[in-house]
Amino acid sequence: MLFLGVFVIISILRFNTGVIGDLITQAFSVLFGILSIFPAIGLVVWGGYYTLKASNFSWNRKLLLAFFSYFLIATLYTHIMVPTGYEFDMKYITEYGGIIGSSITWSFRWMIGEIGTTILITLLLVIDILFLTKWSLSSGVQKISKKTEEKLILVKKTIKKKSQTLKKPEFFSENEEESNDFLYKSSKKKHIKENSISEVKNKSIKKYIDETLNDKNEELDKDDSKEIKTRSGYKFPPIELLHKSIKISENYFDIAKEKADLLEKTLKSFGVSAKVINISIGPSVTRFEIEPAPGVKVRKIENLSDDIALQLAATQIRIEAPIPGKSAVGIEIPNEKNSEVALRDVLEDNKFKRGKGNILVALGKDIAGNAVVADLSKMPHLLIAGATGSGKSVCINTLITSILYNSSPDDVKLILIDPKVVELSIYNGIPHLRIDVVTDPKKAAGALNWAVREMEHRYKLFSENKVRDIKGFNIAKPELKLPYMVIIIDELADLMMVASDSVEDSICRLAQKARAAGIHLVLATQRPSVDVITGVIKANIPSRISFAVSSQIDSRTILDRAGAEKLLGKGDMLFDPSGVAYPIRVQGAFITDKEVENITNFIKENSSGLIKLDNKPIDLSIPEIKEIVPFESQQDELLGEAAEWILDTKRASVSALQRRFRIGYTRAGRLMDTMEAMGIVSGADGAKPREILISKDELEIKLKNT
């Protein structure tokens, strides 16, 4: 027995004891868990007892009973840290109290519950201590009470002696003046209390309580809340107009743990050794942070995305390899039930309430459930794109509502361009609007052109006052304070179809120069193609939001990287602000149309007598560009001959002019452009030939007039 005990101890200590030693180690680990060393020590003690029995060795039964009870308590205490329902999980059996500990813990939990089991363990520990020592619990209590009583008697005697030595106050007449020698230190407090009581008598009690509570609330909320009205009389809408998100009562942790185990098994079945080191449960997706074993390539995990989705029965998964700032790979799996992110939850978060920014906007919550708030003035422009129904319109409503809750009309002005006509018209009448919502695409081009002129006007003011930006100007000239301006275009594709040249030129000029002038753009489109989001626009708008798109090509058009094609829709977005290496996955905040209506109605009702600042009318006309024939072509001696030849041969092309008149491509191209400007031939239409628009008689008249 002594040899067996020593052999087991050596095996448990991970020395090389062969196959038998490994089997014994596994058996003890399953039976006793991390406490397997104690039974092995017991075997050594037992074997030693029989060895020394011939030498009249006396066995201490008290010590043996204490050892056994301590081992039982240690087993219980070790295994009670295992979550309820996982007592017989093999992972916990070997790492905690073994089968013995799990069986005892499960039995006690079933009989007396979690709290009862904890109390029982504590009680057994106290009994063991009393059993091993001669100390009695009752005698200990008696000693403590006796010492306490003696100290109380001593304190009473000390107080009595000091009170006898105190100076007693003398009686005096009412006509005599009070001496300061007889005023106690507490008299000041009594005086204040008497005054406060007399004030309450003069007022009604209810009124006094209401005033006191209001004063306290104002003091408490002075730092956290804004003033209700601004210098222009704007009243911020109450937060109660928005709804709170409904929390789904479901044990997400248990579900996530099961998926983590399944994920490890799935990766192992494909030959990838990895371990889940962290789980982040978000509103719509859960991210599992995987730490691959040394030698495992990240690309191998990325290539298994479809296989992982199949094994986990997930609609779509996204792999972030690696996670920025961590030596781990993130696997994002959709939740079985999405939890709503209400806009009110983000607006009530300290990041928004105490955030420092000129144009704070609430976007939603990230994978970890933290609020995502951005400052539009630092972006400085934002591009929003995604497929139909992915959440763009709701996102625009949350941006506008955030501005209404955080900024007064003195601080921020809005220009809303809505070619869809019905999306943003509800905001008509609020004092933040510089002009009514623009729905005509041609007027929209004029509004953008006015914004360019306003930008140039502001830069002249900055130059005259020797400041660099709007912030410096407002500090230098507070009486001429300029508001920030946000231009929101709900559907860029429609504007690009109607007036692409003027719209793109204005957008590019604003994107390049308008930041310092306090003018910021928010462009939204549901058609993320290169003819809408041109390279020039993308180069000048660094901050982007991509909702779910249909293909990887669209994702690359918006974000310059793949990933948006794997989003879930319904507000699931990738937010890529300027200066960030990787986009952030965000579940967008949700606001209903009814809530938008309630907020705008509240602002309109409380802004009827509001003095609107900077209320000058805006000229929405576009300067007409006259089609002027180039001077070089006007003087070209071949113009008349080339036009007659085209009318005769019906061949209106640059290459035909080159071959017929033996001229270079540049001169032939200028001739063709001149004839197009004069209305002789039609414009180029891809591979189709140009059409001849006039007759020979009309050509003679045109040539005479040039």
Automatic annotation (TrEMBL):
GO cellular component, as recorded: plasma membrane
Any one GO molecular-function label of the UniProt entry: ATP binding
GO biological process, one term: cell division
Record key words, sorted: ATP-binding, Cell cycle, Cell division, Cell membrane, Chromosome partition, DNA-binding, Membrane, Nucleotide-binding, Transmembrane, Transmembrane helix
Membrane topology, record value: Multi-pass membrane protein
Subunit architecture: Homohexamer. Forms a ring that surrounds DNA.
Its biological purpose: Essential cell division protein that coordinates cell division and chromosome segregation. The N-terminus is involved in assembly of the cell-division machinery. The C-terminus functions as a DNA motor that moves dsDNA in an ATP-dependent manner towards the dif recombination site, which is located within the replication terminus region. Required for activation of the Xer recombinase, allowing activation of chromosome unlinking by recombination.
Family: Belongs to the FtsK/SpoIIIE/SftA family.
Name this protein carries in UniProt: DNA translocase FtsK
